[in-house]
Design goal:
5-stranded parallel β-sheet; 23% strand
Length: 317
């Protein structure tokens, strides 16, 4: 049996590929179906067009060219239902060990024997921490859901890439007093081209205040301390939204014996043609293949991983 850890779009793609090949499989997901997408902001619009998010050539029809979070949730739920995927939701994997020529997977609910194992666990579970005093205060959020919650509040947004820019603009338009802290001298170059001018205009007119070449130094109950080129600034503050990105659980990969590069990217070792790691029978799929560099792999260019994996399992199994 093939056990797939992760019930996101790529985990689903792996399940569909196994089913199409006549392989016995099971998808294990610690949360709800496409759990990471569910926890995206309610107002999110995908960068990709709908057809590039499709699985198994099942049409994804959206109201606009670029689908919304709610449309994606509906689509992937219908795909799982249509394909009758064998998936166990809210069942977290606790431990994986070698067992004979395969693996033993222990979860919160059961234990399974796997001949092959596919990790499609994404990168949305572990936020990149700031590592500063006060980061553990309840006012600090590394995940953002809805702008209304921050109406008429003093909000500090950390970061200047797509997530941070969206958060700054959306909370501003719901009445928040928004300040941004940016380590770089400008807004991120990868920010969506139709959004970037909006933020730059808001900064230019003074509606959103931005400190560039700056960093958040300390967080207090009612204020924040920012280190800027002009010296330290103490600002009254009620919420800190740290949109500093996320990282995959690479420690879990190391425990399984997967080699990681020794540089800061910590890229896992795998065969580009088969997606098999240095551990025989253990495969990677999706954004986790990039290690700490999570910017180059998306649903649209990771779907092919499922095909490569299943083809290799068929050839060697």
């Amino acid at each position: 049996m093939v056990v797939i850890i992760g019930g996101g779009p790529i985990g689903m793609a792996c399940g569909i590929a196994c089913k199409n090949a006549g392989l016995e499989y099971l998808i294990l997901e610690k949360g709800c179906l496409v759990n990471s997408l569910y926890h995206y902001p309610t107002t999110m619009t995908f960068f990709s067009t709908s057809e590039r998010l499709e699985l198994n050539n099942i049409p994804f029809v959206s109201n606009s060219v670029k689908p919304t979070r709610s449309e994606a949730l509906e689509y992937y739920r219908r795909v799982a239902q249509n394909q009758e995927l064998r998936i166990h939701l809210f069942e977290e994997v606790l431990e994986v060990g070698k067992a004979g020529g395969g693996f033993r997977v222990k979860t919160t609910k059961d234990s399974y024997a796997a001949d092959q194992l596919i990790l499609a666990t994404g990168f949305y579970d572990i936020p990149n921490l700031l590592g500063i005093p006060g980061e553990n205060l309840p006012k600090v959020k590394h995940y953002y859901k809805d702008p209304h919650y921050y109406a008429f509040q003093k909000v500090l947004v950390v970061g200047a890439n797509n997530s941070a820019v969206d958060v700054a603009l959306e909370t501003f338009r719901k009445g928040a007093e928004v300040t941004m802290v940016v380590r770089e001298p400008e807004i991120g170059r990868t920010v969506k081209y139709w959004v970037r001018p909006d933020l730059e205009n808001r900064i230019a007119e003074g509606s959103i205040r931005a400190y560039f070449n700056s960093r958040l130094k300390e967080i207090g109950e009612n204020e924040v301390v920012i280190s800027t080129p002009e010296g330290e600034k103490v600002l009254e503050n009620q919420w800190v939204l740290a949109m500093t990105g996320y990282q995959p659980n690479l420690d879990f990969l190391q425990k399984l014996g997967i080699r990681l590069s020794e540089d800061e990217v910590r890229k896992p070792f795998y065969n580009e043609d088969t997606m098999e790691t240095n551990v025989p029978g253990l495969y990677l799929a999706g954004v986790i293949c990039g290690g700490m560099d999570t910017r180059k792999l998306f649903i649209e260019n990771s779907r092919e991983h499922a095909v490569k994996i299943v083809e290799h399992i068929r050839q060697t199994g």
